[in-house]
Amino acid sequence: MVGIYFSGTGNTKHCMELLVSSVDREADCISITDKRVLDIIESNEIIYLGYPTQFSNMPYIIRDFIKKNKNIWKGKKIFCISTMGAFSGDGAGCSARELKKYGAIILGGLHIHMPDAVCDSKLLKKSIVENQKIIKEADEKIYRIANEVKSGKYPQEGVGFWSHMCGLFGQRLWFYNKTTGYTDKIKVSSACSRCGKCISVCPMENLSINGNKVIAGNKCTMCYSCVSQCPNKALTLLGKTVVEQCRYEKYVD
Ligand SMILES: Cc1cc2nc3c(=O)[nH]c(=O)nc-3n(C[C@H](O)[C@H](O)[C@H](O)COP(=O)(O)O)c2cc1C
User: Does domain 187-239 have CATH number 3.30.70.20?
Assistant: First the structure.
C-alpha cells in the first residue's frame, strides 16, 4: 500500500502520515507533487488518497490529477480520505466517484475534522488550545480507524448516497463556481518584500517575480500554502486581510 496526498497548510499531510504509518510502518506516504508519484501508484495495488475539502469538493489539483492520469486507476483499490474544518457531506465521495469512473475499486471513505485553513476569514477561527483539541481528537480517530482497517474493515464516510445529497445540497450547489477550475484571485499587497517564499511553496508554480513585483497567475488551487506562509502576510485569496496564518505545525510545536 501507499499513501498519496495533497496538503496546503499541513493538516492532510499529518493525517495521512499518521494513518499510513499506523497501518503499515514500511509504507510510503508522499505528496502528489512528488516526481515519483506515478511510479509509486503504478507499483501499488492499495492506495490511500488524502486531500482537504474545499467547498464540499476536492481541490482542483486533485481532480486534475485523477483525470490527467485516468489510465492508472483501473483495478486499484482506493481508500479516500478528506480533512475538513467543519463539514463536507461527501468530501471523500467526490474523489471516489471520479476514480470509480476510471475503474478503481473504492475500499472506503474517511472524514477527519482538523483546524480550518482559510487564513483570511474570521469564520471558523479557533484558539490554539481549541485547535490542539481538534488535532488530538483527529489523532485518536486515526488510530482507531487504523486498527479497524488492519482487520479489513474500512469506514464508509462520505461515499454513500445520503452523503452525496448532503454535500451537493448543503454546499456544492451554492459554491459550485469556486471549485470548477483553478482561480486567478490571489492578491499580493504592498506589504510584499519579494522574499520569494510564496513562489517556493506554491504547488502550482502560479506565483512569479515580474520586474520588482510578485504576480499571481490564474492557476491557484486555493490551498492557502502561500497565504499561510508569507512572512509579511501580504497575500490573500477569499478575504481582504490575513486574520491568522494557519499551519499544522503551529499547533503542535
Ligand atoms: C478554499 C477552502 C475551502 C474550504 N472549504 C471547506 C468546506 O467546505 N468544509 C469544511 O469543512 N472545510 C473546508 N475548508 C477547510 C479545510 O478543508 C481544512 O482546513 C483542511 O484540513 C485543510 O487541509 P490542509 O492543511 O491539508 O490543506 C476549506 C479550506 C479552504 C482553503
Answer: yes
